[in-house]
Amino acid sequence: MQTSHAHERQTRAGSERDPALRPDSYAKPTEGTMSSIALMNLLAVLARRKALAAIQFLRKPPTGLSTTTSLQQIQHITHPDIVRRAIKICSLKAESICADGDRKLKDTDTMIMMSASSSYSTGSELAAAISTLSYSIKDTYTQETIATRMLVASVLGSEAGIWSRLKSWKEAYFRALGSITAAEGISSFKVLDSETMAKLREIYDGAKAGLDGDVH
Question: How many other C-beta atoms can be found within 10 angstroms of the C-beta atom of residue 201?
């Protein structure tokens, strides 16, 4: 007769062997979402290089620009009004993807929870790309991105809960840490209530203990 600990270990080992239960098994963003992430990352890189605003004042194409791309095209996609519009569209997309995760999370089936985690991963990756752009441009687009930065904290917390329930300590640990860090990084807003923060710290501590081998 199996002990409960032995059963849990076998279940956990089976999960590690089964490709369907790996953290990245469902994490396959659509082409449209990948394009949105790429655009936000591109704008963030340009911002960090102090080139985002400077592009608007160029009179000739920069050295190395592809022959299939015109100066007018890059000035168009980097124009402040277009950037704001892109942020808004990408933010709505991130919220929609994460809402899909919320709907799936109501189910207790393991595979559906994994699918929920996949939605959260995709949505939070896009939201994080938007947040990175916001940090890179300092205060220029704070108003447009604050909700998305809050979304990152919330979604990572939901993911941490999923992985904690599945006893996947590494995933639970890093997502709980990311959620706490993101929430504490937005000092102007109370992103997560005290009860949620306490639960996240509990998940974080439990996952850390699991990684250290203190949880069976």
Answer: 13
- Measured torsion, CA atoms of residues 161, 130, 123, 185, in degrees rounded to the nearest 10: 10
3-class DSSP assignment, residue 167: coil
* pLDDT, position 156: 93
Q: What angle do CA 182, 187, 191 make, to 5 degrees?
A: 55
Q: Is the pTM of this model over 0.85?
A: no
Structure tokens at 212: 């250290």
Residue 8 has pLDDT above 80, yes or no: no
Token pair for 131: 């947040």
Nearest Cα residue to 87 out of 125, 138, 129 = 129
* Rounded Cα–Cα distance for residues 75 and 119 (Å): 33
Task: Enumerate helices (H) and strands (E) in the chain, giving the number of each.
Answer: 8, 0
Lowest mean pLDDT of 20-34, 73-87, 169-183, name the range. Answer: 20-34
Question: Rounded to whole angstroms, how far apart are CA atoms 178 and 153?
Answer: 7
Domain segments of the chain: what residues?
4-151
Task: Indicate the pLDDT class of residue 193, thresholds 50, 70 and 90.
Answer: confident
